[in-house]
Amino acid sequence: MTLDELESFVCIAGGAGVTGASRRLHRSQPAISRRIRQLEQGLGARLFERFGRGVRLTDAGRALLPHAEAALAAVRDGERALRELGTKTSAPLALELALVGTLADAQIVAALRRFRARFPGTTVELRTANSLEVSELVRRGEAHLGLRYFADPDPRLESIALGAEALEVVVPAAHRVRAKRVADLRAFADDAWLGFPPDRRQPEASLERRLIAAGSASPRIKHVDSLTAQKRLVEAGLGIALLPSSSFREELRRGRLRTVAVANLHAEQPVVAVRRRGAHQGPLEQALIELLAREFAPRSRRPRAKR
After folding, report:
1. How far apart are CA 71 and CA 1, in angstroms?
2. Which among 188, 165, 169 is positioned nearest to 265, based on CA atoms?
3. How many other CB atoms are found less than 10 A from the CB of residue 145?
């Protein structure tokens, strides 16, 4: 069992498939397939089975995956620890940050600006993904730190609460409700809501649960698994949505969408940093976590700047 074989296995298992693993690892598809065959022969077990044009994990593959991820992450930790030891006299440090795209907003920019001022010359590599993908990148050691919505229940990850982002009711510009504020959700009784498919691992994030808690007896919900698609469908008048405040500012500025405040709806979603438990933690991650917590904290709790 070699690191190259494990790397190919984890890449394919993460959803890239043989073709995606070939591109990501800069190896030919036959080379990737050969690594998997060698790994299976060494273990005496099939790790993938074909279905259609893709592959999926066997029971043996599912059993191996968390250990393969941990092994690769540990190797990356060791390499990073040695680099940090050597950077006192040579190359600058680097921080790999994975985050949900909608979080790449003013608060993140402010935190990163202060971070760069504190660690001049440090490089920050950003990757955007959805919350589940952010956790996967951190779990595999491909990102040192992740920023996502809601804590991850995976015991291999540590979730650090940073703050919360408000959710607002977003309607098309020409929506029949012209008021900027309404008393309750009855104003939208004839509307369909657009939301992400429910995730059983995070029931608190369910749109249906939020709407029922605010008094909507049986909301009509259409599941759309893309935030961009939700916004475009709202613009087209095909529904309304409950979206993070940072995700639709451009559409508001262009007059394509409007927000309507609902008096009895107080919705927000927590923003957390995730990192692997037991992983090597250098000074960069902790410094960035502290700066992010400061930016996401309510203004009344932020430390006053020294004069």
Report:
1. 11
2. 169
3. 25
The encoded tokens of residue 162 equal: 């940073």
Instruction: Give the separation between CA 177 and CA 171, rounded to whole angstroms.
Output: 9
Structure token pair of residue 49: 């089975």
Strand residues in the chain grouped as ranges (E): 48-51, 54-57, 94-100, 123-129, 145-149, 157-172, 181-182, 192-195, 220-223, 240-244, 257-262, 268-276
Integer Cα distance of 100 and 146 in angstroms: 8
Tens of pLDDT, residue by residue over 126-162, are 988 888 889 988 888 888 899 999 999 988 899 999 9
User: pTM for this structure?
Assistant: 0.70
Residue with tokens 């009344």: 300
DSSP 85: H
Domain annotation for the chain: domains and CATH numbers: 1-75 (1.10.10.10), 164-268 (3.40.190.10)
Rounded distance between C-alpha atoms, residue 290 and residue 47, angstroms: 41
Q: Which residues pair with 240 in a beta bridge?
A: 193
